[in-house]
Please model this.
Amino acid sequence: MLPTDVELLAIREPLTTSLRRGTPLVWASGDGRERRALLGWGERFRAVARGPQRFAQLSAAFREHVAATRHDGGAAPLAFVTVTFAADSAVDSVLVVPEVVGRWHLGQLEIPAAGQVPEPSEPAEFEELDFRAGSLTREQYRRAVARAVGLIEGGEVEKIVVARDLEAVATHPIDLSAVLARLQYANPESWTFHVDGMFGSSPELLAAVHGRSVHSRVLAGSAPVTGRPDADAAAAAGLLASGKDRIEHEFAARSVAERLGRVAEVVTSEAEVLRLPTIMHLATEVTGTLTRDLSALDVAALVHPSAAVCGTPSDRAAELITELEGLDRGRYAGPVGWVDADGNGQFAIALRSGQLAADRCSVRLFAGGGIVDGSVPNEELAETAQKFLPMYQALSPVARP
Model:
C-alpha cells in the first residue's frame, strides 16, 4: 500500500497511539498479529460529488489526479472514499487523498521519511452522552415496519430494508480518535473506518479488489449474542434453520453475486454464521476473477446498493425506503473504504456507523433491518437496538479500550 521506492520511517507504538495522532483517515481490521491499519493525515486532494453519477465523478477525478501526480514524478496516491446511500441525498460523497499515508502492522507505524504526522494526544476522558430519537421514534419505526410487511404481502417488493437514526449529543467536542481506537479494539472482525466525519466498524465487505481478484462478504439475517455459550450455540443453529432469515439472506447474496457476475467469474460459498461481539449474522463469501480492468471504486459502484441494505427489487425498494423512513440516510449504508492508483482497494458498507457533526459535539447514528414476509415490528426494533450497540459502547464512559 506504500510505495516500495520511498524511504520509510518506522515508529514503534500501539495502534491506539497511532490513532491519537490528530484525527486520521482510518481503515483498520483484524486482531493480534493480523491487525492492520491504513492511516492518512492531511489533505492533498479532495473531490466531492452528488447525484446518480457520483461514483463516476469521483472515479474520474481520482484518475485525473493520479495522472497528474505521475506526470510530475510524485508518489502514486491513495484515496479514502465515502459515498452516500442514495443518489438524491443532500450530503456530499467525498474522495480524499491525504498528504501522508501510513501503514500500521505488528506494533509498528510506517510512514514516508519525508512525511510529518501529528504528535499523539493524551487519552480522552469520556462524558455520558444524551441519546435522542432521530427522524423516527420507536413507535414510528414499528409502524414503518408494519407498512413494509403490508407492501411485501401486496406484492410490491420481496424485501425492503428499513432504518432509523439516533442522535448522540455531548456538551464538549467528541474525541473521535479515542472512539476509533475503542471501535477497532472491540470489533476486530469488522472494518473500522473514518472518512470526512463518517466513522464506524462495519462487518460487511462490499467489494475488495487486488489485481484481477475480487471479493465480497454478504451479511443478512441476524440474532443477538449473549455471551452464554449454550444460548449462543442454540441461536446460531436457529439462525441457520430460520426460513425467514435464510430468505432475507438469499436475496442479499444473490444480488451481489449477480452484479459481480457481470464483470467477473464468481464462486459463492454456502451461508455460515459469523459471530461478532454483540450480534451474529448469516454470511456468504462471493469471490472471483474480474474479466475486465475495474478499480475497487468501480466495482463498489456496480454492486451498490445490495439487497442487504436496500431490498429486492432494488429500484422499487429504494423508492419505498424514502417513503417509509422519511430521512436522508446520507452516507449510512453507502460504500466506504480506499482505492489506490492501480485500482486496488477495499470498500465496506457503512454500517454500525455514525456521522460526526461539524462542531464535533454530536453524532448521528443509524441502524436498520431487512424486512421480509413474516417480519415482526417489535423484533425488528430490537434488532436495530442490537445494531446500535457497537457505536453506543464506543461512545460510552463505561467502555474500556
User: Anything to note?
Assistant: The domain at 8-113+129-395 is CATH 3.60.120.10 (Anthranilate synthase). The chain has a mean pLDDT of 92.
